[in-house]
């Protein structure tokens, strides 16, 4: 009596059987994905939403694709190009702005998430004719080279000094029960999210320290 389990099987037969099995399992999933893609493309325009906020003291109302980042809203829709798009992944800090008094990476937040908020960009801190003390210190200490990171550096530094005044600790703060002191280590830790590819860090530190002394 023969046992079919022990019949010889060719390599071609094994491959053919596997391919057929894979086709049966993959085809429904592919068809479902294709149908979903087709339904999305046939939907037409992307989802839009209205958002209103204050930027540098002025009210703005925009209708935007809900996927628009705050950075793109500022640069592309309000033409405030001081905030730079560096990595677009929240790693370099070039896009730093101040929202309700706190510094954030504007590339990592959607514009529609900032409804009703107060936003300050580098343009709102000062102008060439009336510079903010931090801007003036960066000029005097040559705290920039190519200048691409400078708007984010300055916005971050201004908000960082407010954090220190408010008693917000950092990873470098030794005593969490005491008011933090802006030591060199504290300053460098707090500004570590802002990258300068020209490596003007020592000049940036000097500029921030000068403003901190004047504000003390």
UniProtKB/TrEMBL annotation:
Residues 49-125 form the 2Fe-2S ferredoxin-type domain. Gene3D superfamilies: 3.10.20.30, [2Fe-2S]-binding domain. GO terms for molecular function: carboxylate reductase activity. InterPro entries: 2Fe-2S-bd, 2Fe-2S-bd_dom_sf, 2Fe-2S_ferredoxin-like_sf, 2Fe-2S_ferredoxin-type, 2Fe2S_fd_BS, Aldehyde_Oxdr_Iron-Sulfur, Beta-grasp_dom_sf, TAT_signal. It holds the Pfam family Fer2. Keywords: Iron, Metal-binding, Oxidoreductase. The keyword Lipid biosynthesis does not apply. The keyword Cell wall biogenesis/degradation does not apply. This is Aldehyde dehydrogenase iron-sulfur subunit PaoA. It comes from Novosphingobium rhizovicinum.
């Amino acid at each position: 009596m023969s046992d079919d389990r022990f019949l010889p099987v060719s390599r071609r037969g094994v491959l053919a059987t596997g391919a057929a099995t894979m086709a049966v399992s993959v085809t429904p999933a592919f068809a479902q994905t294709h149908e979903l893609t087709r339904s999305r493309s046939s939907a037409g325009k992307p989802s839009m939403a209205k958002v209103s906020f204050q930027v540098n003291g002025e009210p703005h109302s925009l209708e935007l694709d809900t996927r628009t980042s705050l950075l793109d809203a500022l640069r592309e829709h309000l033409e405030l190009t001081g905030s730079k798009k560096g990595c677009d992944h929240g790693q370099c800090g070039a896009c730093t702005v101040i929202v309700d008094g706190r510094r954030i990476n504007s590339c990592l937040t959607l514009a529609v998430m900032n409804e009703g908020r107060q936003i300050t960009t580098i343009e709102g801190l000062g102008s060439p004719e009336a510079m903010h003390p931090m801007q003036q210190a960066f000029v005097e200490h040559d705290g920039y080279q190519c200048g691409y990171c400078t708007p984010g550096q300055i916005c971050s530094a201004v908000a960082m000094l407010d954090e220190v005044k408010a008693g917000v600790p950092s990873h470098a703060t030794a005593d969490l029960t005491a008011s933090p002191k802006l030591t060199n280590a504290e300053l460098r830790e707090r500004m570590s999210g802002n990258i300068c590819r020209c490596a003007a860090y020592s000049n940036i530190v000097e500029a921030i320290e000068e403003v901190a002394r004047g504000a003390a």
